[in-house]
Protein backbone atom coordinates (compact mmCIF):
# COMPACT_ATOMS: atom_id res chain seq x y z
CA UNK A 1 0.00 0.00 0.00
CA UNK A 2 1.34 3.46 -0.77
CA UNK A 3 3.09 5.25 2.04
CA UNK A 4 3.21 8.91 2.90
CA UNK A 5 5.93 10.47 4.99
CA UNK A 6 6.10 12.45 7.26
CA UNK A 7 5.26 15.62 9.22
CA UNK A 8 5.62 18.01 6.31
CA UNK A 9 3.52 16.38 3.62
CA UNK A 10 0.53 18.65 3.96
CA UNK A 11 2.59 21.72 3.35
CA UNK A 12 3.84 20.72 -0.06
CA UNK A 13 0.71 22.31 -1.44
CA UNK A 14 2.08 25.74 -0.53
CA UNK A 15 5.74 25.26 -1.39
CA UNK A 16 7.82 23.30 -3.83
CA UNK A 17 9.61 20.10 -2.99
CA UNK A 18 13.38 20.32 -2.65
CA UNK A 19 15.64 17.34 -3.10
CA UNK A 20 19.33 16.64 -2.92
CA UNK A 21 20.88 14.08 -5.18
CA UNK A 22 22.28 11.13 -3.30
CA UNK A 23 24.52 8.37 -4.43
CA UNK A 24 22.92 5.25 -5.87
CA UNK A 25 22.03 3.13 -2.83
CA UNK A 26 23.57 -0.31 -2.65
CA UNK A 27 21.36 -3.34 -3.11
CA UNK A 28 19.63 -4.11 0.17
CA UNK A 29 17.36 -6.88 1.37
CA UNK A 30 13.74 -5.91 1.97
CA UNK A 31 12.53 -4.93 5.41
CA UNK A 32 10.31 -7.36 7.25
CA UNK A 33 6.70 -6.35 7.70
CA UNK A 34 7.38 -5.87 11.40
CA UNK A 35 10.29 -3.49 10.81
CA UNK A 36 8.55 -1.64 8.01
CA UNK A 37 5.61 -0.80 10.27
CA UNK A 38 5.91 1.38 13.34
CA UNK A 39 3.46 1.44 16.23
CA UNK A 40 0.28 -0.56 16.59
CA UNK A 41 -0.41 -2.34 19.85
CA UNK A 42 2.66 -2.47 22.09
CA UNK A 43 3.48 -6.08 23.02
CA UNK A 44 2.83 -6.88 26.70
CA UNK A 45 6.49 -7.87 27.15
CA UNK A 46 7.52 -4.30 26.30
CA UNK A 47 4.98 -2.82 28.69
CA UNK A 48 6.54 -4.82 31.51
CA UNK A 49 9.65 -2.66 31.39
CA UNK A 50 10.43 1.04 31.69
CA UNK A 51 13.17 2.37 29.38
CA UNK A 52 15.62 4.24 31.61
CA UNK A 53 18.66 4.90 29.46
CA UNK A 54 20.12 4.26 26.01
CA UNK A 55 23.84 4.64 25.43
CA UNK A 56 24.43 4.44 21.69
CA UNK A 57 27.88 4.25 20.10
CA UNK A 58 27.53 4.53 16.32
CA UNK A 59 30.50 4.73 13.97
CA UNK A 60 29.45 6.04 10.56
CA UNK A 61 31.46 5.02 7.48
CA UNK A 62 30.22 7.16 4.56
CA UNK A 63 32.57 5.50 2.06
CA UNK A 64 31.11 2.03 2.75
CA UNK A 65 27.62 3.32 3.62
CA UNK A 66 27.59 1.31 6.81
CA UNK A 67 27.49 1.70 10.57
CA UNK A 68 29.15 -0.27 13.36
CA UNK A 69 27.40 0.14 16.65
CA UNK A 70 27.04 -0.85 20.29
CA UNK A 71 23.92 -0.05 22.29
CA UNK A 72 23.74 -0.40 26.06
CA UNK A 73 20.11 -0.22 27.16
CA UNK A 74 18.95 -0.03 30.77
CA UNK A 75 15.45 -0.96 31.91
CA UNK A 76 13.48 -1.14 35.14
CA UNK A 77 10.85 -3.86 35.42
CA UNK A 78 7.30 -2.51 35.79
CA UNK A 79 6.14 -6.05 36.48
CA UNK A 80 7.73 -9.47 36.76
CA UNK A 81 9.36 -10.46 33.48
CA UNK A 82 11.84 -13.01 32.18
CA UNK A 83 12.38 -11.44 28.76
CA UNK A 84 13.49 -8.22 27.09
CA UNK A 85 11.69 -7.49 23.84
CA UNK A 86 13.25 -4.91 21.53
CA UNK A 87 13.00 -3.88 17.89
CA UNK A 88 15.97 -3.89 15.49
CA UNK A 89 16.13 -4.36 11.74
CA UNK A 90 17.38 -7.90 11.18
CA UNK A 91 19.44 -6.60 8.26
CA UNK A 92 21.83 -5.15 10.87
CA UNK A 93 23.38 -8.41 12.12
CA UNK A 94 23.99 -8.81 15.85
CA UNK A 95 27.43 -10.16 16.77
CA UNK A 96 27.04 -10.41 20.55
CA UNK A 97 24.82 -9.46 23.49
CA UNK A 98 25.81 -8.98 27.13
CA UNK A 99 23.49 -8.79 30.08
CA UNK A 100 24.75 -6.73 33.02
CA UNK A 101 28.22 -7.13 31.55
CA UNK A 102 28.05 -10.92 31.17
CA UNK A 103 28.07 -12.46 27.66
CA UNK A 104 24.91 -14.30 26.67
CA UNK A 105 25.02 -17.48 24.59
CA UNK A 106 23.58 -17.06 21.11
CA UNK A 107 20.79 -19.43 22.11
CA UNK A 108 19.50 -16.83 24.59
CA UNK A 109 18.42 -14.33 21.95
CA UNK A 110 16.82 -14.30 18.52
CA UNK A 111 15.81 -11.68 15.95
CA UNK A 112 14.11 -13.49 13.07
CA UNK A 113 11.67 -10.76 11.97
CA UNK A 114 13.21 -7.65 13.49
CA UNK A 115 11.85 -8.18 16.99
CA UNK A 116 14.81 -8.93 19.21
CA UNK A 117 13.89 -11.29 22.02
CA UNK A 118 16.44 -11.64 24.83
CA UNK A 119 15.76 -14.39 27.34
CA UNK A 120 16.84 -13.34 30.83
CA UNK A 121 18.76 -15.95 32.86
CA UNK A 122 16.76 -14.93 35.92
CA UNK A 123 13.32 -13.37 36.01
CA UNK A 124 13.14 -9.76 37.19
CA UNK A 125 10.77 -8.62 39.89
CA UNK A 126 9.02 -5.26 39.69
CA UNK A 127 11.52 -2.50 40.43
CA UNK A 128 14.62 -4.48 39.44
CA UNK A 129 16.97 -3.15 36.78
CA UNK A 130 18.75 -4.85 33.91
CA UNK A 131 21.25 -3.62 31.33
CA UNK A 132 21.63 -5.19 27.89
CA UNK A 133 24.52 -4.39 25.53
CA UNK A 134 23.90 -5.19 21.87
CA UNK A 135 26.77 -5.26 19.35
CA UNK A 136 25.57 -4.93 15.77
CA UNK A 137 26.32 -3.29 12.44
CA UNK A 138 26.01 -3.35 8.69
CA UNK A 139 24.34 -1.29 5.99
CA UNK A 140 21.30 0.48 7.43
CA UNK A 141 18.21 0.67 5.27
CA UNK A 142 18.61 3.32 2.59
CA UNK A 143 15.78 5.78 2.08
CA UNK A 144 14.56 5.83 -1.51
CA UNK A 145 12.90 9.21 -1.07
CA UNK A 146 13.47 10.60 2.39
CA UNK A 147 11.67 11.58 4.47
CA UNK A 148 8.57 9.96 2.90
CA UNK A 149 10.38 6.63 2.67
CA UNK A 150 12.53 6.31 5.78
CA UNK A 151 16.13 5.28 6.28
CA UNK A 152 19.61 6.68 5.79
CA UNK A 153 20.48 9.19 3.09
CA UNK A 154 24.06 8.89 1.79
CA UNK A 155 24.72 11.99 -0.23
CA UNK A 156 27.50 14.42 -1.13
CA UNK A 157 27.92 18.17 -1.00
CA UNK A 158 28.53 20.18 -4.16
CA UNK A 159 32.28 19.74 -3.73
CA UNK A 160 32.03 15.98 -3.21
CA UNK A 161 32.26 15.67 0.57
CA UNK A 162 30.10 13.13 2.44
CA UNK A 163 26.70 14.36 3.57
CA UNK A 164 24.65 11.89 5.60
CA UNK A 165 21.31 12.03 7.39
CA UNK A 166 18.74 9.70 8.93
CA UNK A 167 14.96 10.09 8.76
CA UNK A 168 13.01 7.18 10.24
CA UNK A 169 9.60 8.45 11.38
CA UNK A 170 7.60 6.03 9.27
CA UNK A 171 9.55 2.83 9.80
CA UNK A 172 10.82 3.73 13.24
CA UNK A 173 13.94 3.85 15.37
CA UNK A 174 14.65 0.15 14.80
CA UNK A 175 16.12 1.03 11.40
CA UNK A 176 19.41 1.85 13.12
CA UNK A 177 19.27 1.16 16.86
CA UNK A 178 17.61 -1.42 19.14
CA UNK A 179 14.63 0.34 20.66
CA UNK A 180 10.97 0.05 21.53
CA UNK A 181 9.41 1.13 18.25
CA UNK A 182 6.23 2.62 19.62
CA UNK A 183 5.27 6.23 20.47
CA UNK A 184 5.28 5.27 24.14
CA UNK A 185 8.75 3.72 23.87
CA UNK A 186 10.72 6.86 24.82
CA UNK A 187 13.82 6.34 26.96
CA UNK A 188 14.30 8.77 29.84
CA UNK A 189 17.81 9.64 28.69
CA UNK A 190 19.93 9.00 25.60
CA UNK A 191 23.70 9.35 25.33
CA UNK A 192 24.57 9.28 21.64
CA UNK A 193 28.21 8.88 20.55
CA UNK A 194 28.68 9.38 16.80
CA UNK A 195 32.12 8.60 15.34
CA UNK A 196 32.94 10.08 11.92
CA UNK A 197 36.02 10.54 9.73
CA UNK A 198 37.82 13.86 10.18
CA UNK A 199 37.08 16.64 9.37
CA UNK A 200 33.37 15.80 9.25
CA UNK A 201 30.99 17.11 11.92
CA UNK A 202 28.13 15.19 13.59
CA UNK A 203 25.40 17.46 15.08
CA UNK A 204 23.00 15.61 17.37
CA UNK A 205 20.09 15.73 19.80
CA UNK A 206 20.30 17.54 23.11
CA UNK A 207 23.48 18.93 24.60
CA UNK A 208 27.02 18.39 23.35
CA UNK A 209 28.88 16.72 26.22
CA UNK A 210 32.22 16.56 24.44
CA UNK A 211 34.26 15.75 21.36
CA UNK A 212 37.15 13.28 21.38
CA UNK A 213 39.64 12.43 18.66
CA UNK A 214 41.54 9.27 17.87
CA UNK A 215 43.67 9.02 14.75
CA UNK A 216 41.66 10.05 11.72
CA UNK A 217 38.33 9.72 13.59
CA UNK A 218 36.33 12.11 15.71
CA UNK A 219 33.55 11.22 18.17
CA UNK A 220 30.72 13.55 19.19
CA UNK A 221 28.91 12.81 22.46
CA UNK A 222 25.35 14.16 22.69
CA UNK A 223 22.93 13.80 25.61
CA UNK A 224 19.15 14.22 25.27
CA UNK A 225 16.35 13.86 27.80
CA UNK A 226 13.10 12.06 26.94
CA UNK A 227 13.66 12.05 23.17
CA UNK A 228 10.90 10.81 20.93
CA UNK A 229 12.17 7.49 19.53
CA UNK A 230 12.12 8.41 15.85
CA UNK A 231 13.50 11.87 16.69
CA UNK A 232 16.98 10.52 17.51
CA UNK A 233 19.00 11.26 14.41
CA UNK A 234 22.34 10.85 12.68
CA UNK A 235 23.73 13.89 10.83
CA UNK A 236 27.18 13.96 9.23
CA UNK A 237 28.73 16.57 6.97
CA UNK A 238 31.40 19.27 6.60
CA UNK A 239 29.23 21.63 8.59
CA UNK A 240 29.84 25.18 9.68
CA UNK A 241 27.90 26.53 12.64
CA UNK A 242 26.01 29.66 13.60
CA UNK A 243 25.38 30.20 17.32
CA UNK A 244 23.53 32.67 19.47
CA UNK A 245 21.32 33.04 22.54
CA UNK A 246 17.65 33.79 22.93
CA UNK A 247 16.56 35.56 26.12
CA UNK A 248 13.10 34.19 26.81
CA UNK A 249 10.14 36.01 28.31
CA UNK A 250 10.28 33.31 30.99
CA UNK A 251 13.69 34.46 32.20
CA UNK A 252 15.80 31.63 30.82
CA UNK A 253 18.38 31.78 28.04
CA UNK A 254 18.06 29.32 25.15
CA UNK A 255 21.11 28.39 23.03
CA UNK A 256 20.54 28.74 19.27
CA UNK A 257 22.57 26.57 16.89
CA UNK A 258 22.39 26.06 13.14
CA UNK A 259 24.69 23.72 11.21
CA UNK A 260 24.86 24.52 7.51
CA UNK A 261 26.94 23.59 4.49
CA UNK A 262 29.89 25.68 3.32
CA UNK A 263 28.86 28.01 0.52
CA UNK A 264 25.46 28.70 2.07
CA UNK A 265 26.63 31.38 4.51
CA UNK A 266 24.35 34.17 3.34
CA UNK A 267 21.22 32.02 3.16
CA UNK A 268 22.07 30.39 6.49
CA UNK A 269 22.34 33.76 8.20
CA UNK A 270 18.94 34.73 6.84
CA UNK A 271 17.36 31.51 8.14
CA UNK A 272 19.15 31.80 11.48
CA UNK A 273 17.69 35.29 11.89
CA UNK A 274 14.22 33.68 11.94
CA UNK A 275 14.98 31.59 15.05
CA UNK A 276 14.30 34.31 17.68
CA UNK A 277 11.09 35.45 15.98
CA UNK A 278 9.75 31.88 15.92
CA UNK A 279 10.62 31.35 19.57
CA UNK A 280 8.90 34.62 20.48
CA UNK A 281 5.74 33.55 18.65
CA UNK A 282 5.51 30.07 20.14
CA UNK A 283 6.30 31.13 23.67
CA UNK A 284 3.68 33.88 23.48
CA UNK A 285 1.06 31.67 21.84
CA UNK A 286 1.61 28.33 23.59
CA UNK A 287 4.20 28.52 26.37
CA UNK A 288 7.86 27.89 27.20
CA UNK A 289 10.12 26.23 24.67
CA UNK A 290 10.19 22.67 26.07
CA UNK A 291 13.94 22.09 25.66
CA UNK A 292 15.34 25.43 26.68
CA UNK A 293 18.00 23.81 28.87
CA UNK A 294 19.30 21.97 25.78
CA UNK A 295 19.02 24.06 22.61
CA UNK A 296 17.01 25.17 19.63
CA UNK A 297 19.00 23.32 16.99
CA UNK A 298 18.65 22.99 13.22
CA UNK A 299 20.84 21.12 10.73
CA UNK A 300 20.88 21.34 6.93
CA UNK A 301 20.05 17.89 5.55
CA UNK A 302 20.13 16.08 2.18
CA UNK A 303 16.37 15.55 2.43
CA UNK A 304 13.51 17.96 3.03
CA UNK A 305 12.91 17.88 6.77
CA UNK A 306 11.95 16.13 9.99
CA UNK A 307 11.14 17.13 13.58
CA UNK A 308 14.21 15.63 15.23
CA UNK A 309 14.12 16.79 18.83
CA UNK A 310 16.38 19.85 19.37
CA UNK A 311 18.09 19.19 16.00
CA UNK A 312 15.36 19.73 13.40
CA UNK A 313 16.27 18.62 9.90
CA UNK A 314 16.04 21.36 7.28
CA UNK A 315 16.33 20.80 3.52
CA UNK A 316 14.03 23.40 1.99
CA UNK A 317 16.86 24.99 -0.02
CA UNK A 318 16.10 28.42 1.49
CA UNK A 319 13.05 28.90 -0.71
CA UNK A 320 10.98 32.09 -0.62
CA UNK A 321 7.20 32.03 -1.03
CA UNK A 322 6.15 35.54 -0.09
CA UNK A 323 4.92 34.62 3.39
CA UNK A 324 7.84 36.23 5.19
CA UNK A 325 8.98 33.02 6.87
CA UNK A 326 10.33 29.59 6.00
CA UNK A 327 7.30 27.29 6.08
CA UNK A 328 9.34 24.12 6.52
CA UNK A 329 11.41 25.35 9.44
CA UNK A 330 8.31 26.75 11.15
CA UNK A 331 6.37 23.51 10.75
CA UNK A 332 9.13 21.25 12.02
CA UNK A 333 9.83 23.62 14.90
CA UNK A 334 6.15 23.41 15.88
CA UNK A 335 6.74 19.75 16.62
CA UNK A 336 9.00 20.59 19.54
CA UNK A 337 5.70 21.37 21.30
CA UNK A 338 3.32 19.13 19.35
CA UNK A 339 5.22 15.85 19.01
CA UNK A 340 8.33 16.02 21.18
CA UNK A 341 7.00 17.66 24.38
CA UNK A 342 3.48 16.25 23.94
CA UNK A 343 3.70 12.89 22.18
CA UNK A 344 0.74 10.92 20.88
CA UNK A 345 0.05 7.82 22.94
CA UNK A 346 -0.70 5.88 19.76
CA UNK A 347 -0.17 6.53 16.05
CA UNK A 348 -3.97 6.68 15.87
CA UNK A 349 -3.65 10.00 17.73
CA UNK A 350 -1.09 11.39 15.26
CA UNK A 351 -3.41 14.26 14.36
CA UNK A 352 -2.41 15.75 17.74
CA UNK A 353 1.05 16.26 16.23
CA UNK A 354 0.14 17.23 12.71
CA UNK A 355 -3.08 19.22 13.01
CA UNK A 356 -1.65 21.50 15.67
CA UNK A 357 1.68 21.92 13.86
CA UNK A 358 -0.23 22.74 10.67
CA UNK A 359 -2.54 25.21 12.43
CA UNK A 360 0.48 27.03 13.82
CA UNK A 361 1.34 28.17 10.31
CA UNK A 362 -1.77 30.27 9.57
CA UNK A 363 -1.46 31.63 13.11
CA UNK A 364 2.17 32.56 12.47
CA UNK A 365 1.30 34.04 9.10
CA UNK A 366 -1.34 36.14 10.83
CA UNK A 367 1.26 37.39 13.30
CA UNK A 368 3.43 38.50 10.39
CA UNK A 369 0.96 39.36 7.62
CA UNK A 370 -2.33 40.04 9.40
CA UNK A 371 -5.70 38.43 8.69
CA UNK A 372 -5.02 38.06 4.96
CA UNK A 373 -2.11 35.73 5.70
CA UNK A 374 -4.23 33.70 8.13
CA UNK A 375 -7.20 33.13 5.85
CA UNK A 376 -5.13 32.65 2.71
CA UNK A 377 -3.31 29.79 4.41
CA UNK A 378 -6.54 28.18 5.65
CA UNK A 379 -8.06 28.45 2.18
CA UNK A 380 -5.19 26.48 0.65
CA UNK A 381 -5.66 23.78 3.27
CA UNK A 382 -9.41 23.65 2.60
CA UNK A 383 -8.93 22.83 -1.07
CA UNK A 384 -6.95 19.71 -0.25
CA UNK A 385 -9.32 17.81 2.05
CA UNK A 386 -10.15 14.21 1.13
CA UNK A 387 -12.76 13.23 3.75
CA UNK A 388 -12.59 9.56 2.82
CA UNK A 389 -11.61 8.13 6.20
CA UNK A 390 -12.00 9.37 9.78
CA UNK A 391 -9.10 11.33 11.21
CA UNK A 392 -9.22 9.00 14.23
CA UNK A 393 -10.18 5.33 14.08
CA UNK A 394 -11.71 3.26 16.84
CA UNK A 395 -8.59 1.16 17.40
CA UNK A 396 -4.81 1.25 17.61
CA UNK A 397 -3.03 2.01 14.32
CA UNK A 398 0.41 1.74 12.80
CA UNK A 399 2.11 4.74 11.26
CA UNK A 400 1.57 3.33 7.77
CA UNK A 401 -2.16 2.92 8.32
CA UNK A 402 -2.56 6.50 9.51
CA UNK A 403 -0.46 8.10 6.76
CA UNK A 404 -1.92 6.01 3.95
CA UNK A 405 -3.84 8.45 1.75
CA UNK A 406 -5.66 5.65 -0.09
CA UNK A 407 -6.79 3.57 2.90
CA UNK A 408 -6.52 5.95 5.82
CA UNK A 409 -6.84 9.63 6.73
CA UNK A 410 -3.45 10.56 5.22
CA UNK A 411 -3.11 14.29 4.77
CA UNK A 412 -6.42 14.94 6.50
CA UNK A 413 -4.65 14.55 9.85
CA UNK A 414 -2.85 17.76 8.89
CA UNK A 415 -5.33 19.85 6.92
CA UNK A 416 -8.73 18.73 8.18
CA UNK A 417 -7.37 18.66 11.70
CA UNK A 418 -6.06 22.23 11.39
CA UNK A 419 -9.35 23.51 9.96
CA UNK A 420 -11.23 21.73 12.74
CA UNK A 421 -9.07 23.57 15.27
CA UNK A 422 -9.92 26.85 13.55
CA UNK A 423 -13.64 26.08 13.99
CA UNK A 424 -13.11 24.91 17.58
CA UNK A 425 -11.32 28.15 18.43
CA UNK A 426 -14.26 30.20 17.19
CA UNK A 427 -16.72 27.93 19.02
CA UNK A 428 -15.13 28.17 22.48
CA UNK A 429 -13.22 31.46 22.26
CA UNK A 430 -9.53 32.27 22.40
CA UNK A 431 -9.18 32.04 26.18
CA UNK A 432 -10.52 28.48 26.42
CA UNK A 433 -8.84 27.41 23.19
CA UNK A 434 -5.31 28.45 24.09
CA UNK A 435 -5.77 27.26 27.67
CA UNK A 436 -6.64 23.85 26.19
CA UNK A 437 -3.49 23.90 24.06
CA UNK A 438 -1.31 24.65 27.08
CA UNK A 439 -2.95 21.88 29.10
CA UNK A 440 -2.50 19.44 26.20
CA UNK A 441 1.16 20.33 25.69
CA UNK A 442 2.38 20.70 29.27
CA UNK A 443 -0.17 18.79 31.35
CA UNK A 444 -0.76 21.90 33.46
CA UNK A 445 -2.16 25.43 33.02
CA UNK A 446 0.84 27.31 34.36
CA UNK A 447 3.95 26.05 32.53
CA UNK A 448 7.28 27.55 33.52
CA UNK A 449 10.77 26.30 32.62
CA UNK A 450 11.50 23.37 34.91
CA UNK A 451 7.97 22.59 36.11
CA UNK A 452 6.95 20.15 33.35
CA UNK A 453 8.25 17.06 31.57
CA UNK A 454 7.49 15.53 28.15
CA UNK A 455 4.39 13.37 28.36
CA UNK A 456 1.87 11.38 26.34
CA UNK A 457 -1.65 12.39 25.34
CA UNK A 458 -4.45 10.82 23.33
CA UNK A 459 -7.49 12.11 21.49
CA UNK A 460 -9.87 11.56 24.39
CA UNK A 461 -7.45 13.37 26.69
CA UNK A 462 -7.78 16.44 24.49
CA UNK A 463 -11.57 16.14 24.33
CA UNK A 464 -11.69 16.06 28.14
CA UNK A 465 -9.37 19.08 28.33
CA UNK A 466 -11.55 21.09 25.93
CA UNK A 467 -14.75 20.13 27.75
CA UNK A 468 -13.28 21.35 31.02
CA UNK A 469 -11.95 24.59 29.53
CA UNK A 470 -15.22 25.32 27.70
CA UNK A 471 -17.38 24.37 30.66
CA UNK A 472 -19.62 22.10 28.59
CA UNK A 473 -19.63 18.76 26.80
CA UNK A 474 -18.42 19.20 23.21
CA UNK A 475 -18.12 15.52 22.37
CA UNK A 476 -20.63 16.05 19.55
CA UNK A 477 -18.12 18.37 17.85
CA UNK A 478 -15.28 15.83 17.90
CA UNK A 479 -17.56 12.91 17.02
CA UNK A 480 -18.49 14.60 13.75
CA UNK A 481 -15.08 15.98 12.77
CA UNK A 482 -12.75 13.25 14.01
CA UNK A 483 -14.60 9.94 14.16
CA UNK A 484 -16.47 9.97 10.84
CA UNK A 485 -15.12 11.10 7.48
CA UNK A 486 -17.81 13.20 5.80
CA UNK A 487 -18.02 16.91 6.51
CA UNK A 488 -21.33 18.24 7.84
CA UNK A 489 -23.46 19.93 5.22
CA UNK A 490 -25.47 23.06 5.93
CA UNK A 491 -28.79 23.12 4.07
CA UNK A 492 -30.08 26.66 3.57
CA UNK A 493 -33.64 27.31 2.39
CA UNK A 494 -35.11 30.78 1.75
CA UNK A 495 -38.89 30.57 1.71
CA UNK A 496 -40.84 33.78 1.77
CA UNK A 497 -39.29 35.99 4.45
CA UNK A 498 -37.88 33.05 6.41
CA UNK A 499 -34.37 31.68 6.15
CA UNK A 500 -34.23 28.09 7.43
CA UNK A 501 -30.93 26.32 8.17
CA UNK A 502 -30.43 22.64 8.89
CA UNK A 503 -27.25 20.70 9.56
CA UNK A 504 -27.09 17.43 7.63
CA UNK A 505 -24.73 14.98 9.31
CA UNK A 506 -24.21 11.26 8.49
CA UNK A 507 -26.07 8.92 10.84
CA UNK A 508 -28.00 11.97 12.14
CA UNK A 509 -25.30 12.67 14.66
CA UNK A 510 -26.04 15.57 17.01
CA UNK A 511 -24.43 18.78 15.73
CA UNK A 512 -25.67 21.97 17.39
CA UNK A 513 -23.00 24.12 15.75
CA UNK A 514 -23.96 27.79 15.83
CA UNK A 515 -24.12 29.59 12.50
CA UNK A 516 -23.63 33.28 11.78
CA UNK A 517 -25.73 34.82 9.02
CA UNK A 518 -25.28 38.34 7.67
CA UNK A 519 -28.37 39.94 6.15
CA UNK A 520 -27.83 43.24 4.35
CA UNK A 521 -24.83 43.96 6.53
CA UNK A 522 -26.42 42.98 9.86
CA UNK A 523 -24.97 39.96 11.67
CA UNK A 524 -27.19 37.34 13.32
CA UNK A 525 -26.13 34.23 15.27
CA UNK A 526 -28.35 31.16 15.14
CA UNK A 527 -27.71 28.71 18.03
CA UNK A 528 -28.86 25.75 15.89
CA UNK A 529 -30.32 23.73 18.75
CA UNK A 530 -31.04 20.20 17.50
CA UNK A 531 -29.09 21.16 14.37
CA UNK A 532 -31.75 23.56 13.11
CA UNK A 533 -32.37 27.28 13.13
CA UNK A 534 -34.32 29.95 11.31
CA UNK A 535 -34.31 33.68 10.79
CA UNK A 536 -37.45 35.71 10.03
CA UNK A 537 -37.88 39.01 8.23
CA UNK A 538 -35.35 38.19 5.53
CA UNK A 539 -36.57 39.86 2.33
CA UNK A 540 -36.39 37.85 -0.86
CA UNK A 541 -33.79 40.13 -2.43
CA UNK A 542 -31.67 40.62 0.69
CA UNK A 543 -27.94 40.05 0.43
CA UNK A 544 -27.46 36.98 2.61
CA UNK A 545 -24.01 35.71 3.56
CA UNK A 546 -23.87 32.48 5.56
CA UNK A 547 -20.81 32.20 7.80
CA UNK A 548 -19.38 35.56 6.67
CA UNK A 549 -16.25 35.19 8.81
CA UNK A 550 -15.46 31.64 7.62
CA UNK A 551 -15.71 29.99 11.01
CA UNK A 552 -17.29 26.72 9.90
CA UNK A 553 -15.67 23.62 8.49
CA UNK A 554 -18.42 22.25 6.28
CA UNK A 555 -19.15 20.70 2.93
CA UNK A 556 -18.81 23.27 0.14
CA UNK A 557 -20.00 22.34 -3.37
CA UNK A 558 -17.50 24.65 -5.05
CA UNK A 559 -14.61 22.86 -3.36
CA UNK A 560 -15.92 19.46 -4.46
CA UNK A 561 -16.28 20.73 -8.03
CA UNK A 562 -12.75 22.09 -7.98
CA UNK A 563 -11.30 18.84 -6.69
CA UNK A 564 -13.16 16.85 -9.34
CA UNK A 565 -11.85 19.21 -12.03
CA UNK A 566 -8.30 18.70 -10.81
CA UNK A 567 -8.73 14.95 -11.06
CA UNK A 568 -10.04 15.27 -14.58
CA UNK A 569 -7.10 17.46 -15.56
CA UNK A 570 -4.70 14.94 -14.07
CA UNK A 571 -6.37 12.11 -15.99
CA UNK A 572 -5.89 14.09 -19.19
CA UNK A 573 -2.24 14.60 -18.37
CA UNK A 574 -2.59 18.34 -17.93
CA UNK A 575 -0.64 20.12 -15.19
CA UNK A 576 -2.65 21.05 -12.13
CA UNK A 577 -3.10 24.70 -11.31
CA UNK A 578 -3.64 25.73 -7.74
CA UNK A 579 -6.64 27.95 -7.19
UniProtKB/TrEMBL annotation:
Q: Which keywords appear in this protein's UniProt record, sorted alphabetically?
A: Cytoplasm, Hydrolase, Metal-binding, Metalloprotease, Protease, Signal, Zinc
Domain Aminopeptidase N-like N-terminal, first and last residues per copy = 53-227
Q: Where is the composition biased (Low complexity)?
A: 21-34
Q: Which residues form the Peptidase M1 membrane alanine aminopeptidase domain?
A: 328-481
Q: Where in the cell is it found?
A: Cytoplasm
Q: Which reaction is recorded as catalysed by this protein? A: Release of an N-terminal amino acid, Xaa-|-Yaa- from a peptide, amide or arylamide. Xaa is preferably Ala, but may be most amino acids including Pro (slow action). When a terminal hydrophobic residue is followed by a prolyl residue, the two may be released as an intact Xaa-Pro dipeptide
- Tell me the segments the record calls region Disordered: 21-45
Cofactor needs: Zn(2+)
Q: Under which EC number(s) is this enzyme classified?
A: 3.4.11.2
- Asked if Membrane is a keyword of the record, the answer is no
Per the record's keyword annotation, is Signal included, yes or no?
yes
**Signal peptide (residue range):** 1-20
The organism's superkingdom is given as Bacteria
Q: According to the UniProt record, what class of enzyme is this?
A: hydrolase
What family classification does the UniProt entry report for this protein?
Belongs to the peptidase M1 family.
Quote the protein name from its UniProt record.
Aminopeptidase N
